[in-house]
Amino acid sequence: MPEIPLVPVHWRFPAHPTSVRRARHAVAESLPQVLRPHLGDDLGLLTSELVTNALRHGACREDEELIELILWPADGHYWLAVSDPGTGKPELARPDTNSESGRGLILVDSLATAWTVRPRPTRGTSVIAGLPFRQGG
Asked: Could you tell me one molecular function GO term of this UniProt entry (predicted)?
C-alpha cells in the first residue's frame, strides 16, 4: 500500500506588511519539531522574502487582496508556494551596490534547491521554492 502524503498546510493573509511576520511564524510553527533546527531559519527567510515580494509587486492593499501560502513535504523537500493576485513574473535581478532593494530573489535562489514562477489557473502568480530535509530529522 502506498504511503499517504501529508495534507498541505494553507494560509491566507491580508496584503499588509504585518503579514510578513505572521506568515513566517505560521510556517515555522507548522514544521515538525524535529525539523525546526534544520529548516527553521532558512524556511523563515524564504517565507519573509517571498511574502514581501508578493506584497510589493503582486497585491494591492486598497483592494484587500490576499497573499496565499501553501507548505508541503514531498520528495525530500519542504515546498513553499506563495501566491498573489498579480500578473507579473518575478525575475532574478542584479542590483548594483547602491540599490536599496532587489535582492530578495537572489536570497531565494541561494537558499532553495529549486524555485520557479507559475501562473495560477484562475488569477495571479505563484512562486514555489523547495528546501531539502532529511527524513527523520
From this structure: ATP binding
Alpha carbons 61 and 30: distance in angstroms, whole number:
27
Q: What is the rounded average pLDDT of the residues 88-117?
A: 76
Superfamily grouping for domain 9-132: Histidine kinase-like ATPase, C-terminal domain (3.30.565.10)
Q: What is the pLDDT of residue 101?
A: 57
CB 125 within 8 A of CB 90: yes
Determine the Cα–Cα distance for residues 30 and 69; give it in Å rounded to an integer.
12
User: How confident is residue 137, by pLDDT bands cut at 50, 70 and 90?
Assistant: very low
